[in-house]
Structures are given as structure tokens and as C-alpha cells.
């Protein structure tokens, strides 16, 4: 449409200049006027075709960048597409560049809810790509703003449907499960429109400041309780170790006592009255033959034992 307006404008200006030059030639009585008139006629005669050629080339040549497809419009309707590079179309056609590269779109503070209807805010990034073969169909059915019409509302709804499955404290730990579920859902819903979901990332999950403070306080209390529990376990281990040490010491004392008792028992069994008299007799002088004891007391050394004690040293000396 713009091309035809440009052509009509050029032709109109050319005719106006040509007519002005013609009038100057026929009405002017001065030599300068007669010379200027033919100049205007010449400009209109040659300038108009040149301007028409320039306008035609300007409206038929288009440069399509790499990673883009040129959508051809004819009187407002999509009639085809072109690849990248220098492309030529009819003067009455127009060409609009459409990206077929992977495009990343960020979402800030997507409002969702947890299982307890607690506000959950998700920051996410989605990478999508349109099929080069089907992009003109997408532009024809939806339009150039297909992302805002098809992708954005689906992303928001998918996150809402997934976060509501978890309690508030379990949303963040299950972010990978939420991401996978949302990506699978978007992939299935958008592939019918020739839109491929290359990747979906969850950048951050946040809550209201009040709830965030409550979570941090609870985590601090949990860490403190865990530290106390570990301390108790450590003290219990020390106590168990002390008990085992004491038990081992007591067992050793008991064994020693039993051995000592056994030794004492055997020693007591080996000490007979005769042995005691023998030891006593050996303590006496060798020439003792008479012992005086108080009246009324028994002999602690029998005469026979005294004789044995005297004989044994003599025999030992002879040997």
C-alpha cells in the first residue's frame, strides 16, 4: 500500500513540475524564463522515471538477518516466507523479519499459592524456539505477539497448578520436581503451535517477608535443637565410655581379687601345725635342748619336732 502511495506522489510531483515548466516556456517573455522552463520540463521528464525506479527497488529489496525468517505480506495478508539474506519481493508486498532463534524470557515474581494458600513467588526463565517451517502459520493464526498470547499465561497457570500441591515449607525443596512438571506440561501444550520449549529454569522461590522471617526463625531453632541433640549424644557417648572403663577396671580388680583369694586359700591349706612347728624350730639356736614355758600353757613345739630341727642342720652340714 505504501508503494502505490509513493508512486502516485512521485507521478503527481513530476506532472506538476512538467506543467510548471511548460507554462514558463509559453508565457515568459524573458530569455531567462524561457531557459528555466525547459529545465523544469527536463527534470520532470527524466526525474520522474528515476524516482519511480528508486522507489521500486527500495520497496522490493529486503535484508533478512541470520537466524530469522522473512514473512511476506501481500495487502495485509501472509502469503509466504523467505530465508535469510537479501530477498526480493513484489513492490506491492512487504516483508517482516521473525526470529527463529532460541529466545529467553524472564518471569519475575510469578504469583502462586501453596497447599495452605500461602503466597509463593517464583522467578523463572524459559527458553523457546519457533519452528522455521511453521512460523508463518503461527503468525497467521496468532500473530507476532504469540509469546504474550500463548506462552506467558500458560507458564503462570502451570506454576500455580504445581506449587499448590505442596505445603509452604516443601515448595523450595521440591523445586526440581515442580520445574520438571511445568516443563513437561508446557512442552505438550505448545508443540501444537510449533513452539518448542528448549529449557525452563527456576531462578528463585520466595514468600512474603513475614512468612520468610518465620521460616528463617524456625530453621534457626531447628539448627539449635540439632546442635543440642548432637551435644547430648556426645555426652552420652562419653558417659558410656566412662562406664565401660569403670566396668573394665572393676572386672580387673575382681579377677585379681579372685586370684589373690585362690592363692591365699592354697597357702592356708599348705600351712599345717607340723609346718609351723618346723619353721619355729628352725628359728631356734642349734644348741637348744631344753625350753622353759610358763605353767599351765601347752607346748608349741613338741620334743620330736625339736629333735628333727637339730638333726636336719647336722645332716645338711655333713653333706
From TrEMBL:
InterPro entries: Band_7, Band_7/SPFH_dom_sf, Prohibitin. One of its GO terms (cellular component) is membrane. CDD domains: SPFH_prohibitin. It holds the Pfam family Band_7. Residues 59-219 form the Band domain. PANTHER family: PROHIBITIN (PTHR23222), PROHIBITIN 1 (PTHR23222:SF0). This is Band 7 domain-containing protein. It comes from Candidatus Kaiserbacteria bacterium RIFCSPHIGHO2_01_FULL_49_13.
Amino acid at each position: 500500500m505504501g508503494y502505490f502511495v509513493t508512486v502516485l506522489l512521485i507521478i503527481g510531483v513530476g506532472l506538476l513540475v512538467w506543467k510548471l515548466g511548460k507554462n514558463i516556456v509559453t508565457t515568459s517573455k524573458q530569455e531567462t524564463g524561457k531557459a528555466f522552463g525547459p529545465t523544469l520540463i527536463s527534470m520532470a521528464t527524466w526525474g520522474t522515471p528515476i524516482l519511480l525506479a528508486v522507489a521500486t527497488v527500495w520497496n522490493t529489496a529486503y535484508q533478512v538477518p541470520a537466524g530469522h525468517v522473512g514473512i511476506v505480506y501481500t495487502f495485509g495478508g501472509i502469503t509466504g516466507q523467505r530465508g535469510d539474506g537479501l530477498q526480493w519481493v513484489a513492490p506491492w508486498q512487504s516483508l517482516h523479519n521473525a526470529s527463529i532463534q532460541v529466545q529467553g524470557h524472564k518471569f519475575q515474581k510469578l504469583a502462586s499459592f501453596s497447599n495452605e494458600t500461602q503466597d509463593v513467588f517464583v522467578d523463572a526463565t524459559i527458553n523457546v524456539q519457533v519452528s522455521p517451517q511453521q512460523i508463518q502459520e503461527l503468525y497467521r493464526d496468532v500473530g507476532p505477539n504469540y509469546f504474550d498470547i500463548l506462552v506467558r499465561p500458560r507458564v503462570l497457570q502451570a506454576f500455580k497448578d504445581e506449587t499448590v500441591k505442596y505445603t509452604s515449607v516443601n515448595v523450595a525443596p521440591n523445586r526440581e520436581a515442580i520445574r520438571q512438571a511445568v516443563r513437561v506440561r508446557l512442552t505438550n501444550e505448545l508443540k501444537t503451535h510449533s513452539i518448542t520449549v528448549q529449557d525452563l529454569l527456576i531462578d528463585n522461590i520466595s514468600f512474603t517477608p513475614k512468612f520468610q522471617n518465620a521460616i528463617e526463625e524456625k530453621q534457626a531453632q531447628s539448627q539449635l535443637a540439632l546442635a543440642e541433640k548432637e551435644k547430648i549424644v556426645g555426652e552420652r557417648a562419653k558417659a558410656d565410655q566412662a562406664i565401660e572403663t569403670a566396668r573394665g577396671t572393676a572386672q580387673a580388680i575382681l579377677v585379681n581379687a579372685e586370684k589373690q583369694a585362690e592363692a591365699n586359700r592354697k597357702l592356708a591349706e599348705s600351712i599345717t601345725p607340723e609346718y609351723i612347728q618346723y619353721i619355729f624350730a628352725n628359728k631356734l639356736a642349734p644348741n637348744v635342748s631344753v625350753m622353759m614355758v610358763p605353767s599351765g600353757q601347752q607346748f608349741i613345739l613338741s620334743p620330736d619336732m625339736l629333735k628333727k630341727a637339730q638333726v636336719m642342720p647336722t645332716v645338711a652340714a655333713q653333706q
